[in-house]
Amino acid sequence: MLRYFLRPLGLAGAALLLAGHARAQGQVTPPATALPGQAPAAASAQQPVHHEHDEADNWSVHFQQTVIQQWHNDLSPRYAGDHSLQARENAKLSLTTTLFLGRRLWKGAAIFFNPEVAGGSGLSGATGIGGAPNGETFRIGDPSPQVYLARLYLRQLWALGSDREQDEDDLNQLKGSRPARYLALNVGKFSIADYYDQNSYSHDPRTQFFNWSLMSAGGWDYPANVRGYTAGAVLEYVQPGLALRASATAMPTDANGPTLDFHYGKAQALTAEVTKTFSLRNHPGAVRLLGFRNQAAMGSYNLAVRNATGGAVPDVTAARAEGRTKYGFVVNAEQEISKEVGVFGRFSYNDGHNETWAFTEIDRSLSVGITSTGARWKRPTDRLGAALVANGLSGDHRAYLAAGGSGFILGDGRLDYGLEYIGEVYYSIDFPRYHAALSPDYQIIINPGYNTSRLPGPVHVVALRLHVEF
């Protein structure tokens, strides 16, 4: 099975997997989302501790592969629509494979290039649940592995002081010293989640929680094409204890579409965030406040319902118009409790007047959770996590679904509204010698798609993840 998925990489990708390019630290770590200036919170509970070195590298080469097998119990739905969770289906397999290349260019500048392969499918094609259970899947019809460009961007830093800090060689991060206080500009193609809504315990479906509404703030309809990437610019101001970020990035040309719209005057996403780190009884923590405003040719839920006369089913795509907006905010917090245990929480909101355009059909979301190392049972590099999520919809959105409308994620044909509740527990078994981790996962989903009457009971989802990283 792995040979089949690796085939698109060719000999170079297979050689990387076998040769290893192993790092000195013997632990699987998240992708390059913990950028300089992010909170050091819970580094001991979620990431390996790096040791400072004086030497710098001009190149960085890394590799990751994540395979997830996922299954849900047989269901007995009372009715179904075009985008309902299927009553019975075979287990679904997903795969992502990424090569991370970085090159130092001149003082303060580096370029990063990430080709990626993805294949497989989510449960029910990643439809029927607002908080979909596999963050490594996309709503793409063809499950065969496809090669595409994930990231290609330039990063330029300008020092704002003489103090220096040390970065280790990591995914999309070059080894060497950098200013402790700096201004940075990132321009190109990337994931907006590389810079915003960071959380040491709940941000990466390759190494942490699987669920969409735990890898990111569910109510943030973050700008991205169907595979999760956008293009634009992110400006950062970072100093010890504080980080400010602002960006202008592209939206897709169509809801959940593969193509980005570069007519920035008509469609764009404006995002800003402030991160404050602190120490509570000598344990690090962080609070992040994010605000966003998206503009695209979105459809209006209210207008779609009003236009559906004579018993017709409303169609939000027929109620689209240029210049429509969506705005919202995210509050994101994390706190280390001990060297082994950390807690986190998020609350996110969007106005929900216009259709979901990029991420998923969630307009309000609250999540809380806890993670721990395995130190108490003599497995210090293992990770155990448990979390609870409640997702909700705006009044306009629920009225549209209740009238029989469909989005690109949801559409049961009717709606007896209630909050969608999700619980998730995972355990990551680390194999440092092989730079790999094996993670069984369990999720329970109550009212999938916000429907209280469609199913007589909850959905049980079990999964197994294999993650390899060099």
UniProtKB/TrEMBL annotation:
Compositional bias per record (Low complexity), positions renumbered to this chain: 29-48
Domain of life (superkingdom): Bacteria
One GO CC annotation: membrane
A Gene Ontology BP annotation from the UniProt entry: carbohydrate transport
Region (Disordered): 29-53
Stored InterPro entries: Carb-sel_porin_OprB (IPR007049), OprB_sf (IPR038673)
Xref: Pfam families: OprB
Entry keyword set: Signal
A GO term for molecular function: porin activity
Signal peptide stretch: 1-24
Family: Belongs to the OprB family.
Protein name in the entry: Carbohydrate porin
Organism per entry: Hymenobacter nivis
